[in-house]
């Protein structure tokens, strides 16, 4: 997959680009709703014999627009989004820098300069996709804006238990510590890639304690979780304590040296620990020889 960053004023010249099916959206998480768009577009691209392309934006528009809830950390930071889209068969990924000037483009100009300008022959987006100044463009308008230039497919709402599958819903579940429910929306348990900062073996309890730091990730609510840790293709089961904003503490049975980097997959929240289990975790994290900075 080729990734192309687009910054500043841009006017694409159709003739300079391969014809493509273009999928539009932010795609944080690349969840089951997003996947239905990509799969739909992939079928069209195969039938029409043209490239499968995705256009996304960075940073999240909320950082630029005057809205209350700014999204500054992501379910899938850019490298994860790139990997997931590539694995789904996307051939070209356009990442448009979302700036104030870009936000002010009229719906028609966005379609002309970016979507048609990059030689889209067919556009795929979801039922609630909006574009252009004040988000005034919608899928009905897209058909008019793209008339004679490209076909439009609008993907209907994908829902679970009557609720729209969305990045916001997944963030809400993480905020509430309901990591067990995330897979209904994401298609998998929530996971993040982190760096091992330090680890030590606690002689008293016979457990290894490791400190993992994450960058740019949206993390579950503070608490104790059962997690799966993968490092250099080995899998470890662990209890994890979400510690400060961007880190977690792993507690593993035995004297284990886990190599960095690591992937943590949140399986379940620990609701009831036996007093013995709780005491040992408490002892470990309060151990004055374990240098945790809260
Ligand atoms: C050219 C362009 C201009 C935009 N301007 C605004 C804007 O002024 N106000 C706004 O709330 N959203 C604006 N948006 C954001 C869209 O409403 C929408 O959030 C974005 O296209 C991502 O779509 P998605 O959230 O459905 O993935 C703009 C989007 C584009 C592509
Ligand atoms: N559940 C869904 N069913 C169909 N299309 C969807 C669904 N969720 C998102 N899409 C489409 O996927 C693209 C990317 O959407 P977006 O990144 O805004 O996802 P979202 O989950 O709705 O995000 P948020 O919750 O932050 O609004 C858009 O074209 C959108 O219409």
TrEMBL record:
Belongs to the RibF family. Keywords: ATP-binding, FAD, Flavoprotein, FMN, Kinase, Nucleotide-binding, Nucleotidyltransferase, Transferase. CDD domains: FAD_synthetase_N. It catalyses: FMN + ATP + H(+) = FAD + diphosphate. It holds the Pfam family FAD_syn. This is FAD synthase. Coiled coil: none annotated. Pathway: Cofactor biosynthesis; FAD biosynthesis; FAD from FMN: step 1/1. InterPro entries: Cyt_trans-like, FAD_synthase, Riboflavin_kinase, Rossmann-like_a/b/a_fold. GO terms for molecular function: FMN adenylyltransferase activity; riboflavin kinase activity. The keyword Cell cycle does not apply. It comes from the Bacteria. Residues 15-168 form the FAD synthetase domain. Its EC number is 2.7.7.2.
């Amino acid at each position: 997959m080729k990734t192309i960053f687009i910054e500043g004023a841009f006017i694409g010249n159709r003739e300079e680009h391969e014809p493509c099916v273009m999928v539009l959206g932010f795609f944080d998480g690349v969840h089951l709703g997003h996947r239905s768009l990509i799969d739909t577009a992939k079928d069209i691209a195969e039938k029409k014999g043209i490239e499968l392309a995705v256009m996304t934006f960075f940073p999240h528009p909320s950082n630029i627009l005057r809205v209350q809830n700014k999204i500054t950390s992501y379910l899938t930071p850019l490298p994860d989004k790139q990997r997931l889209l590539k694995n789904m068969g996307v051939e070209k990924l356009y990442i448009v820098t979302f700036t104030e000037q870009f936000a002010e483009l009229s719906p028609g100009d966005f379609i002309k300069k970016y979507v048609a300008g990059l030689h889209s022959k067919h556009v795929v987006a979801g039922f609630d996709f909006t574009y252009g100044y004040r988000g005034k463009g919608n899928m009905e308008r897209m058909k008019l804006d793209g008339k004679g230039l490209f076909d439009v497919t609008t993907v209907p709402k994908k829902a679970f238990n009557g609720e729209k599958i969305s990045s916001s819903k997944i963030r809400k579940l993480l905020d509430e510590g309901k990591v067990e429910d995330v897979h209904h929306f994401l298609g998998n348990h929530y996971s993040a890639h982190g760096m091992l900062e330090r680890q030590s073996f606690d002689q008293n309890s016979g457990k290894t304690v490791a400190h993992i730091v994450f960058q740019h990730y949206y993390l579950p609510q503070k608490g104790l979780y059962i997690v799966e840790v993968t490092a250099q293709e080995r899998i470890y089961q662990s209890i994890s304590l979400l510690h400060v904003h961007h880190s977690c503490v792993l507690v593993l049975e035995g004297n284990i040296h886990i190599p960095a980097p690591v992937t943590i997959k949140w399986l379940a929240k620990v609701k009831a620990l036996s007093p013995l289990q709780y005491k040992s975790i408490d002892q470990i994290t309060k151990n004055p020889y374990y240098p945790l900075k809260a």
